[in-house]
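For the sake of transparency, this paper describes our internal protein records without simplification. The remainder of this section carries one protein's record, kept here as part of the documentation:
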Amino acid sequence: RLFGINTIGLKRNGFSPERIREITNAYKILFKQGLLLRDALQTLDNEFSDSVDIKRLITFITSSDRGIAR
């Protein structure tokens, strides 16, 4: 089961509060809104077009051969 973002780990690794907030919002779109994966990825791409972290997440998911647990 998924429980959320490891915010403590992100803070320890120097992520700013803004970056953590973006990642948390992306998590909610991807896992909590009930969207199809392709729709969730499109929403992430549209809403976080300037975020390197979210671009990396999108790239990871789209290049995965096995998919992700949702």
